[in-house]
Amino acid sequence: MTVLRYTVLLRCLFWGADLCWLACFRVLVSGS
Prior knowledge:
transmembrane helix, transmembrane, 84% helix, 2 helices, membrane
């Protein structure tokens, strides 16, 4: 996992927004 992805995940954890989680999931899926 790249630093960028890790940073995005941390932001999602801090924000705790459903839309953010969905965005993170899509980013991880498209990134893999």
